[in-house]
Amino acid sequence: MATIQYGTLNDEFTRIVRRQQDDLPAHVTKDAYFEDHGVNNPNTGYHLDTPSGRTIPVEFIQANETYLWIQLHRHNDTWITNQGGIIRNNPDLGWWLVIDPQHPNYIPKRQEASIPLTLAAVTTALQQLPTRSNPPDHPTIMEGQQEDINVTTGQAQAEAQRINIITPSNSALKGNPPFIFDGDRNKTSKFLLNWDLWHAVNRNNDTMKKPFSRITTMLSYMDGTRVDAWKGEQLLKLQEALDNGVQETDEDLWTDYMERFRNAFTNQNR
Protein backbone atom coordinates (compact mmCIF):
# COMPACT_ATOMS: atom_id res chain seq x y z
CA MET A 1 0.00 0.00 0.00
CA ALA A 2 1.35 3.43 -0.89
CA THR A 3 1.88 5.90 1.93
CA ILE A 4 -1.40 7.81 2.33
CA GLN A 5 -1.28 11.62 2.40
CA TYR A 6 -3.19 13.18 5.28
CA GLY A 7 -2.49 16.88 4.85
CA THR A 8 -1.73 18.69 8.11
CA LEU A 9 -2.17 17.09 11.52
CA ASN A 10 -3.54 19.48 14.15
CA ASP A 11 -5.41 19.20 17.45
CA GLU A 12 -8.37 17.56 15.75
CA PHE A 13 -8.26 13.78 15.48
CA THR A 14 -7.83 12.28 12.01
CA ARG A 15 -8.91 8.77 11.05
CA ILE A 16 -5.91 6.70 9.93
CA VAL A 17 -6.06 3.72 7.57
CA ARG A 18 -3.60 1.05 8.73
CA ARG A 19 -1.50 -0.90 6.27
CA GLN A 20 -2.76 -4.39 5.59
CA GLN A 21 0.62 -5.81 4.57
CA ASP A 22 4.26 -5.44 5.56
CA ASP A 23 5.33 -3.20 2.67
CA LEU A 24 7.88 -0.85 4.26
CA PRO A 25 11.65 -1.48 3.89
CA ALA A 26 13.62 -2.57 6.94
CA HIS A 27 15.52 0.71 7.24
CA VAL A 28 12.19 2.54 7.63
CA THR A 29 10.55 0.10 10.07
CA LYS A 30 13.70 -0.70 12.04
CA ASP A 31 12.29 -2.06 15.35
CA ALA A 32 8.65 -1.68 14.38
CA TYR A 33 7.14 -5.02 13.36
CA PHE A 34 4.08 -6.07 11.40
CA GLU A 35 1.33 -8.28 12.80
CA ASP A 36 -1.13 -9.90 10.41
CA HIS A 37 -4.47 -10.67 12.04
CA GLY A 38 -6.34 -10.89 8.76
CA VAL A 39 -7.57 -8.38 6.21
CA ASN A 40 -9.63 -5.54 7.72
CA ASN A 41 -8.88 -6.72 11.26
CA PRO A 42 -8.21 -3.52 13.23
CA ASN A 43 -5.18 -5.10 14.92
CA THR A 44 -3.41 -5.79 11.61
CA GLY A 45 -0.55 -3.34 11.16
CA TYR A 46 2.74 -2.13 12.60
CA HIS A 47 3.52 -2.19 16.30
CA LEU A 48 6.41 -1.04 18.47
CA ASP A 49 7.53 -2.33 21.87
CA THR A 50 8.49 0.40 24.33
CA PRO A 51 11.24 0.19 26.98
CA SER A 52 8.53 0.04 29.66
CA GLY A 53 7.18 -3.17 28.16
CA ARG A 54 4.14 -1.70 26.43
CA THR A 55 3.25 -2.42 22.82
CA ILE A 56 1.84 0.51 20.90
CA PRO A 57 0.21 0.61 17.44
CA VAL A 58 2.09 2.83 14.97
CA GLU A 59 1.81 3.84 11.32
CA PHE A 60 4.05 5.57 8.77
CA ILE A 61 2.16 8.30 6.89
CA GLN A 62 2.62 11.38 4.74
CA ALA A 63 1.51 14.52 6.59
CA ASN A 64 2.74 18.03 7.37
CA GLU A 65 4.63 17.99 4.05
CA THR A 66 6.89 15.12 5.13
CA TYR A 67 6.80 11.48 6.22
CA LEU A 68 5.93 10.72 9.83
CA TRP A 69 5.75 7.86 12.26
CA ILE A 70 2.65 8.31 14.42
CA GLN A 71 1.16 6.60 17.43
CA LEU A 72 -2.41 5.41 16.88
CA HIS A 73 -5.36 5.46 19.27
CA ARG A 74 -8.29 3.04 19.05
CA HIS A 75 -11.75 4.51 18.51
CA ASN A 76 -14.28 1.66 18.22
CA ASP A 77 -12.97 -0.33 15.23
CA THR A 78 -11.01 2.53 13.70
CA TRP A 79 -7.68 4.22 14.45
CA ILE A 80 -7.15 7.93 14.97
CA THR A 81 -4.32 10.35 15.77
CA ASN A 82 -3.56 14.08 15.91
CA GLN A 83 -0.43 16.23 16.11
CA GLY A 84 0.17 14.96 19.65
CA GLY A 85 0.67 11.47 18.24
CA ILE A 86 3.62 12.43 16.03
CA ILE A 87 6.69 10.40 16.99
CA ARG A 88 9.89 12.41 16.74
CA ASN A 89 13.55 11.63 17.28
CA ASN A 90 12.99 8.01 18.20
CA PRO A 91 16.06 5.80 17.56
CA ASP A 92 13.93 2.65 17.14
CA LEU A 93 12.02 3.91 14.10
CA GLY A 94 13.56 4.65 10.74
CA TRP A 95 13.13 6.98 7.80
CA TRP A 96 14.00 7.10 4.12
CA LEU A 97 17.63 6.89 2.96
CA VAL A 98 19.02 9.16 0.25
CA ILE A 99 18.86 6.16 -2.11
CA ASP A 100 15.05 6.04 -1.71
CA PRO A 101 12.94 8.02 -4.25
CA GLN A 102 10.86 9.35 -1.34
CA HIS A 103 13.87 11.10 0.24
CA PRO A 104 13.89 14.89 -0.43
CA ASN A 105 17.52 14.71 -1.61
CA TYR A 106 17.04 11.72 -3.91
CA ILE A 107 18.52 12.11 -7.39
CA PRO A 108 17.75 9.53 -10.13
CA LYS A 109 20.68 7.47 -11.33
CA ARG A 110 22.83 8.96 -14.05
CA GLN A 111 22.76 7.66 -17.57
CA GLU A 112 26.56 7.42 -17.71
CA ALA A 113 26.67 4.21 -15.67
CA SER A 114 28.26 1.43 -17.69
CA ILE A 115 25.55 -1.11 -16.76
CA PRO A 116 22.22 -0.68 -14.95
CA LEU A 117 23.11 -1.57 -11.37
CA THR A 118 21.82 -0.24 -8.13
CA LEU A 119 25.00 0.66 -6.26
CA ALA A 120 26.58 2.35 -9.26
CA ALA A 121 23.49 4.53 -9.37
CA VAL A 122 23.89 5.27 -5.66
CA THR A 123 27.52 6.29 -6.15
CA THR A 124 26.90 8.64 -9.05
CA ALA A 125 23.78 10.09 -7.47
CA LEU A 126 25.57 10.81 -4.19
CA GLN A 127 28.32 12.61 -6.08
CA GLN A 128 25.72 15.14 -7.24
CA LEU A 129 24.01 15.82 -3.92
CA PRO A 130 23.81 19.56 -3.17
CA THR A 131 25.54 20.88 -0.07
CA ARG A 132 22.52 22.45 1.60
CA SER A 133 22.62 23.78 5.13
CA ASN A 134 19.01 22.96 6.01
CA PRO A 135 17.50 20.16 3.90
CA PRO A 136 13.94 19.01 4.54
CA ASP A 137 14.09 17.05 7.76
CA HIS A 138 12.11 14.24 9.25
CA PRO A 139 10.63 14.57 12.73
CA THR A 140 12.92 14.87 15.69
CA ILE A 141 10.80 14.63 18.92
CA MET A 142 7.42 13.39 19.94
CA GLU A 143 4.80 15.98 20.91
CA GLY A 144 2.11 15.64 23.55
CA GLN A 145 1.57 11.93 23.94
CA GLN A 146 5.20 10.82 23.48
CA GLU A 147 5.75 7.35 24.87
CA ASP A 148 9.15 6.01 25.89
CA ILE A 149 9.68 4.64 22.41
CA ASN A 150 12.81 4.66 20.24
CA VAL A 151 13.74 5.77 16.36
CA THR A 152 16.25 4.44 13.85
CA THR A 153 18.86 4.85 11.30
CA GLY A 154 18.38 2.68 8.35
CA GLN A 155 20.21 0.05 6.60
CA ALA A 156 21.24 0.23 3.03
CA GLN A 157 19.47 -2.36 0.90
CA ALA A 158 21.36 -2.22 -2.35
CA GLU A 159 22.92 -5.11 -4.21
CA ALA A 160 26.74 -4.94 -4.36
CA GLN A 161 28.46 -6.21 -7.49
CA ARG A 162 31.88 -6.20 -9.18
CA ILE A 163 31.50 -3.16 -11.38
CA ASN A 164 33.34 -0.58 -13.45
CA ILE A 165 32.24 2.88 -12.34
CA ILE A 166 32.10 5.56 -15.03
CA THR A 167 32.41 9.23 -14.15
CA PRO A 168 31.58 11.96 -16.68
CA SER A 169 35.09 13.42 -16.40
CA ASN A 170 37.15 10.25 -16.45
CA SER A 171 37.41 6.70 -17.74
CA ALA A 172 36.41 3.44 -16.12
CA LEU A 173 38.38 2.19 -13.15
CA LYS A 174 41.12 -0.25 -14.18
CA GLY A 175 42.59 -3.41 -12.71
CA ASN A 176 41.02 -6.04 -10.49
CA PRO A 177 38.53 -4.62 -7.97
CA PRO A 178 38.38 -6.10 -4.46
CA PHE A 179 36.08 -8.99 -3.63
CA ILE A 180 32.70 -8.25 -2.06
CA PHE A 181 33.29 -7.78 1.67
CA ASP A 182 30.55 -9.26 3.87
CA GLY A 183 31.76 -8.01 7.24
CA ASP A 184 33.73 -11.13 8.19
CA ARG A 185 36.61 -9.79 10.30
CA ASN A 186 38.81 -12.68 9.23
CA LYS A 187 38.68 -11.24 5.70
CA THR A 188 39.20 -7.56 6.61
CA SER A 189 42.97 -7.47 6.06
CA LYS A 190 42.73 -9.16 2.67
CA PHE A 191 39.90 -6.88 1.59
CA LEU A 192 41.89 -3.77 2.58
CA LEU A 193 44.99 -5.07 0.78
CA ASN A 194 42.98 -5.68 -2.40
CA TRP A 195 41.38 -2.26 -2.04
CA ASP A 196 44.74 -0.51 -1.52
CA LEU A 197 46.17 -2.16 -4.66
CA TRP A 198 43.12 -1.16 -6.71
CA HIS A 199 43.24 2.34 -5.28
CA ALA A 200 46.91 2.65 -6.21
CA VAL A 201 46.27 1.49 -9.79
CA ASN A 202 43.54 4.12 -10.15
CA ARG A 203 45.17 6.87 -8.05
CA ASN A 204 44.82 9.39 -10.90
CA ASN A 205 41.19 8.55 -11.61
CA ASP A 206 38.74 11.24 -10.51
CA THR A 207 36.67 8.68 -8.61
CA MET A 208 39.62 7.73 -6.43
CA LYS A 209 41.09 11.22 -6.11
CA LYS A 210 37.92 12.61 -4.53
CA PRO A 211 37.43 11.30 -0.94
CA PHE A 212 33.64 11.41 -1.19
CA SER A 213 33.40 9.18 -4.28
CA ARG A 214 36.25 7.01 -2.95
CA ILE A 215 34.10 6.19 0.07
CA THR A 216 30.93 5.46 -1.91
CA THR A 217 32.96 3.26 -4.26
CA MET A 218 34.30 1.18 -1.37
CA LEU A 219 30.79 0.91 0.06
CA SER A 220 29.64 -0.54 -3.26
CA TYR A 221 31.98 -3.50 -2.63
CA MET A 222 30.37 -4.34 0.70
CA ASP A 223 27.26 -6.47 0.95
CA GLY A 224 25.55 -8.76 3.44
CA THR A 225 23.57 -8.73 6.66
CA ARG A 226 26.66 -7.88 8.72
CA VAL A 227 27.41 -4.72 6.74
CA ASP A 228 24.09 -3.44 5.35
CA ALA A 229 23.10 -1.39 8.40
CA TRP A 230 26.62 0.00 8.73
CA LYS A 231 26.60 1.03 5.04
CA GLY A 232 23.35 2.90 5.57
CA GLU A 233 24.86 4.78 8.51
CA GLN A 234 27.85 5.82 6.40
CA LEU A 235 25.59 7.22 3.67
CA LEU A 236 23.79 9.28 6.27
CA LYS A 237 27.07 10.52 7.76
CA LEU A 238 28.25 11.60 4.29
CA GLN A 239 25.03 13.48 3.68
CA GLU A 240 25.29 15.16 7.09
CA ALA A 241 28.86 16.21 6.28
CA LEU A 242 27.72 17.82 3.02
CA ASP A 243 24.85 19.54 4.79
CA ASN A 244 27.36 20.98 7.27
CA GLY A 245 29.47 22.47 4.49
CA VAL A 246 32.21 19.84 4.22
CA GLN A 247 33.60 19.65 0.68
CA GLU A 248 33.68 16.37 -1.25
CA THR A 249 37.44 16.86 -1.67
CA ASP A 250 38.13 17.11 2.08
CA GLU A 251 40.48 14.24 3.00
CA ASP A 252 39.09 14.25 6.54
CA LEU A 253 36.03 12.50 5.09
CA TRP A 254 38.21 9.53 4.13
CA THR A 255 40.27 9.59 7.35
CA ASP A 256 37.17 9.56 9.54
CA TYR A 257 35.49 6.91 7.39
CA MET A 258 38.48 4.55 7.56
CA GLU A 259 38.66 4.97 11.33
CA ARG A 260 35.00 3.93 11.57
CA PHE A 261 35.63 1.01 9.20
CA ARG A 262 38.55 -0.32 11.24
CA ASN A 263 36.65 0.09 14.51
CA ALA A 264 33.75 -1.89 13.06
CA PHE A 265 35.53 -4.67 11.17
CA THR A 266 39.01 -5.14 12.68
CA ASN A 267 39.72 -7.58 15.48
CA GLN A 268 40.80 -5.19 18.23
CA ASN A 269 42.44 -7.89 20.35
CA ARG A 270 45.09 -8.71 17.76
How do you describe this structure in short?
The protein is built from seven helices and eight strands, in the order E-H-E-E-E-E-E-E-E-H-H-H-H-H-H.
Account of the 3D structure:
With 270 residues, the chain is of the alpha+beta class. The protein has a domain at 118-136 and 153-265. The chain contains 7 helices and 8 strands, in the order E-H-E-E-E-E-E-E-E-H-H-H-H-H-H. It has helices at 26-29, 118-127, 188-201, 206-209, 211-219, 228-243, 251-265, and strands at residues 14-16, 33-35, 45-49, 55-63, 66-71, 73-75, 78-81, 86-87. The strands form 2 sheets. Strands 2-3-4-5-8 form a 5-stranded antiparallel beta sheet, with no helix packed on it.
How is this fold's topology laid out?
Elements: E1 14-16, H1 26-29, E2 33-35, E3 45-49, E4 55-63, E5 66-71, E6 73-75, E7 78-81, E8 86-87, H2 118-127, H3 188-201, H4 206-209, H5 211-219, H6 228-243, H7 251-265
Antiparallel strand pairs: 1-7, 2-3, 3-4, 4-5, 5-8, 6-7
Helix pairs in contact: 2-5, 5-7
